[in-house]
What we know:
This protein has helices at residues 41-60, 63-79, 81-92, 96-113, 116-119, 155-166, 181-192, 207-215, 228-240, 263-275, 293-308, 328-344, 379-382, 398-407, 421-430, 466-472, and strands spanning 7-9, 12-14, 21-26, 31-37, 124-129, 132-140, 143-147, 170-174, 200-202, 219-225, 244-248, 253-257, 285-290, 347-350, 369-372, 389-392, 410-411, 413-417, 435-438, 454-455, 458-459, 474-482. By secondary structure, the chain is an alpha/beta fold. The termini are far apart. The relative contact order is 0.14. Bound molecules: nicotinamide-adenine-dinucleotide. Nicotinamide-adenine-dinucleotide (NAD) is lined by residues 147-152, 174, 176-177, 206-207, 210, 225-227, 230, 248-251, 282, 384, 386, 412, 453, 457.
Amino acid sequence: MTPDLTHFIAGKRVSGTSDRFSDVFDPNAGTVATRVPLASTAEVDAAVADAVAAQREWARWNPQRRARVLLRFLQLVNEEIDALAALLASEHGKTVPDARGDIQRGLEVIEFSAGAPHLLKGEYSTEAGTGIDVYSMRQPLGVVAAITPFNFPAMIPLWKAGPALASGNAVILKPSERDPSVPLRLAELFAEAGLPPGVLNVVNGDKEAVDAILHHPDIRAVGFVGSTPIAEYVYTTATANRKRAQCFGGAKNHAIILPDTDLDRTVDALIGAAFGSAGERCMAISVAVPVGEETADRLVEKLAERTRGLRIGVSSDESADLGPLVTAAAKKRVVDYIDLGVQEGAELVVDGRDFVLDGHEEGYFLGGSLFDRVTPDMTLYREEIFGPVLVVVRAKDYEEALRLPSEHEYGNGVAIFTRDGDAARDFAARVDTGMVGVNVPIPVPLAYYTFGGWKASGFGDLNQHGPDAFRFYTKTKTVTSRWPSGVKDDASSFVIPTMA
Ligand code: NAD
């Protein structure tokens, strides 16, 4: 076992003092790799106090100077991206190429955030009235918190840190306790890139640390990503404590397959989107909805063959399609859902429960599972499984297929596969989800657009990254100014000024 992990506070790694720890596993071997300290309220308070002091100075840096820190950080991460990807994969279980993608999608938001000097520009109206100019400016909030999930330990911390730091805030990052090593290393690289001590702090922990964040009066905003029950809890608690909050939750992403689609290409797309990262992606396709019985029969036959042929391997095996799940508990949860699906009467076409990887018998591996004839009342359909399980719900026509994702509790992403432009356009306009793919299975918007789900997949008004992130991490101040020159009538007025 390697030595215990630390926090990263005031520019350096510091040991935990709470005497509480959580195990961090090696999911390929099924062993404990190290332990991560779980911060007490007092440790969170101390980190916030450092961040408050550091933020005042950081906010005085001009935006271009702040952006240069981000650009140096980009360079440093790129120089060690292979080692970072290997570290990420060793704790998460995703394959190394997929881990590289996790880091890369985070870096794209850092690149976008380096445009802060432009993005933070205010508005100006000259001669809004006689001798009157009006302008607005964006100012940082102060200290903000990011509470992030296990499944993208690089990307999501960077989605939060990029725009928050570029806007002049200090950040308390509370990453997942399941794979905290990469967030810690990223914080170190920010420091090496010139970020002043205390501006980005990593406080590891569990509910105690999260509650300390949610109740701390000096934390002005909370960005959360994780499961829906916790997202809702964080949102209601943070907002009750007068903080800004944007909290993104779970998902059940559907793929609608129309009869006219190129089925081989569609199956290629579905297999990767359902089983990549062992299905532990908030944008994973977990429900396939073929329209019409003939499409369904052909689709299930092709999916079954491809699901049986998935290459499952350790995360360092670059030829593997997927690696293990993150923990034994995550694996058990998925197996329990498959058991339940069978009990509920769904047809288990491919059963991945008994998969064992030779030489890694204790690793948290599962084969891909495929269910057919799943119905909307089944738990398998209603709840997020977060594992390598794809369920097929057969729809009789387009309208029924459109209704399924629209009426589902979750509303993160959805995809439609078709050659029919009219149908795709109609679908994109009418479906009730936040992100839509047309022949694109995982429609994660690029850094300069915004990312966010609807309904139970997201709580709060603004999305992640893109221009919304700069709105979330800044407050707008508006100045109305009037100067005596040219103004003749300066008598007192007792009526509300208007532009009449
Ligand atoms: P999780 O909800 O278990 O944990 C997320 C964060 O909340 C972690 O930092 C964790 O320490 C903290 N936390 C856990 N339990 C808590 C509690 N009782 N009180 C306070 N804080 C608590 O989520 P996870 O398992 O790490 O991540 C997977 C989930 O995240 C899935 O549901 C997935 O769909 C979702 N996710 C959503 C998005 C999105 O953008 N919508 C992106 C990635 C992941």
